[in-house]
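TODO from last week: model LacI family transcriptional regulator.
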Amino acid sequence: MATIKDIAAKAKVSISTVSRILNFDSTLNVSEDTRIRVLKIAEEMNYVTLKERKNKSQNYTIGIITSYTERKELSDPYFLSIRMAIEKHCLKNNVEFKTLFLNKVITNNVKEYKDIDGIMAIGIFQEEEINVLKKISQNIIFIDSSPEEWEFDSIVVDLKYGSIKALEYLYGLGHRKIGYIGAKVVPHSNENGEELINYRELAYRNFMFKINNLKEEWIFKGYFNPEDGYKLMKKALKLKNRPTAFFIASDPMAIGAYKAIYEEGFKIPEDISIVGFDDIATTQYLTPALTTVKVYTEFMGETALNTIMERIKGERTLSKKIVLPVKLVERDSCKKIK
């Protein structure tokens, strides 16, 4: 790579003169011919300024922070798939990243993360947790939640649309007695926290109210894991007025529900129809394969990275909230009834 010294030698002028010409110093007293000659030689020698070299070699480091603990993340493939998608696109785009868990970040000194240029925060965070993240970096994008929308970027999925599509599908098959199994929505680092709005449950309540069949005894809530899906379905199967179908708010819960149904001597979909939510990889291999609402986690990771890089590079100051579409995937876990 050509240097200022090389250009000065070829142009037969001083190094300082070349430097001032290349930096367009208007106070330099030099002839126009000399100025043009230096610029032409610099172009011929493919000279790149220090500023341009820095911009081209700029490396950014992203902190990927999940509100889940490591153990809980492993029990919910949905959030794990989001994180893996982000890491994949970071590697593809030569962006350095550090995968961190919120419980460890809070207990550590934030100065340990001074090299982080931006944060991709996966999950639900409380106000005091967000304040910790802000001390690390002001460039934050929240994924699967959207706090303080005027301050932070966020990416969420269209939970309302996906839930309605699932319920309309069951309704179209003749089901009117539709139960709901979902989770209490609280910040994951504090399971005793205040319950937040659950848009899947809200969509379910509104839908069942519209068809004049909303019953509280058909609503079961725990946590997004197979264990609670199993326990809640066990309770649901004891109802005298048992639903003919269930909308289950996450696929891991649906997997647990499958086990409970078979243990109690029922069959899917002959006795009970099931629709899940997420479309994690294992659902197509269940028996029968699970009908579910697909969330495009791969696209979510790609979009999140592109969005945070806009912030880091200063290309935008106004916050973005991006709502990604979902799609009902019909498989074999539902049956038409009269």
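Done. Residues 187-194 have pLDDT under 50 and may be disordered.
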